Amino acid sequence: MLSKSLIEDVLTAALSTGGDFSEIFVEDRFTNNITLQSGKIETSLSGRDFGIGIRVFKGLQSVYAYTTDHSKDGLLKAAKNAAQAISGNNLIQLPPLVHESVETVHPVQVLPLEVEKARKAAIMKQAYETAKNYHSSISQVKVRLMDEEQNVIIANSEGNWIEDKRVRSRLAIQAIAVRHNQMETGFYGPGAHQGFEFFENLDMNHYASEAARIAVTMLDASPCPGGKFPVIIDNEFGGVIFHEACGHGLEATAVAKNNSVFAGHLGEKVAPEIVTYIDDGTLPNEWGSINIDDEGEKARKNVLIENGILKGYLIDKFNARRMGMESTGSGRRESFRFAPTSRMTNTYIAPGKSTPEEIIANTEYGIYAKYMGGGQVSPATGDYNFAVMEAYEVKNGKLGKPLKGATLIGNGPKTLQLVDMVGNNLGHGAGMCGSLSGSIPVNVGQPMIRVSEITVGGTKGE
């Protein structure tokens, strides 16, 4: 994409006013986004995005600039503009750039760019037909297929130069069930750090049928009672609560500025011994997985909480300076338009010893949240509010009637401390996470867990 000599010139220009670190991020991204509705392709968008980000550090000062002009003059101008915000007397001599090869732990068999859209449309129609034919009450099905190939070069004034290819694929299925004046929605959105083979190997019957089943089931749901109850949260996307309410609080973006309830508590007990919380970007072909982060650091498994003890944070290069710690390979960004900062990859609660059946059987009364919906959280406090897409009453150790309108309200760190049972059925769910450096693919995950008490917003009385 850019020659080695040009990259060296840009890095040198960025240091010309006394910066102590410079970095260049070159991105060439190809995307496809297809939508099918009412059995027909509604939109089909393909695009290419190319640009370069340039960053300069001086102590605890950071400056970022980006450009789509990849000419030598354009790049040197962008680098010098970034450098103008930095002043210092010590000029660094750029060491020779040493190319480092990337070990790909997420094999791709079929690049999406090499697959004609007719094959992609066939996959989508299969999902549509499966969901639409699930039940007569299904009135509408919407299917989105997304794939992308992102090629990057990352080089810096420490002499590092590395290239990477990232390929991701995702299918999103939304089903709407209608009865009289009532309408309910179901959704499932599996994804992977994989090529077109992901779609061909996907258990379409499972995912499409589940999206439809959720919508149909909720037609018969009773209003959820409000109050404080034990809550069982199922695996996979159930992990979104701890991603939002705890995971963001463990990112250096918040910790370095003391804007997190976890700041300054390394080595302390923050959860029961049965809770181990991990961020692992090395899981093969998972949606949130990476080979390297967007600062060129190799992906790794970061144990954040181990047997209830706070062990570490997710740290990027700049916040590592603030904290006096090392990067954990957690610097991520949406694109060249964003400076990287500390972000999650695949974050999950490790499996415990209880079976799902045991967890339900040991709950006299409570709420079972099978599938979570969207929510809001304050990273500084960990206070959250999440909708439940599919919920059930638990009574005398057995699942009861479906419930609608359930909302879980609480505080992430406090909820973490109230986890009293952890299942053995770890599962991951794909999603997109928004933060300071844009929207990025992440997995959230956990086995089934039970929280001894959560405030449940619903309809008082029945």
From TrEMBL:
Pfam families: PmbA_TldD_1st, PmbA_TldD_2nd, PmbA_TldD_3rd. InterPro entries: Metalloprtase-TldD/E_C (IPR045569), Metalloprtase-TldD/E_cen_dom (IPR045570), Metalloprtase-TldD/E_N (IPR002510), Peptidase_U62_metallo (IPR051463), TldD (IPR025502), TldD/PmbA_N (IPR035068), TldD/PmbA_sf (IPR036059). It comes from the Bacteria. Residues 23-85 form the Metalloprotease TldD/E N-terminal domain. The lineage of its organism: Bacteria, Bacillati, Bacillota, Bacilli, Bacillales. This is TldD/PmbA family protein. Belongs to the peptidase U62 family. Residues 112-219 form the Metalloprotease TldD/E central domain. It comes from Neobacillus paridis. Residues 227-458 form the Metalloprotease TldD/E C-terminal domain. Keywords: Hydrolase, Metalloprotease, Protease. Gene3D superfamilies: PmbA/TldD superfamily.
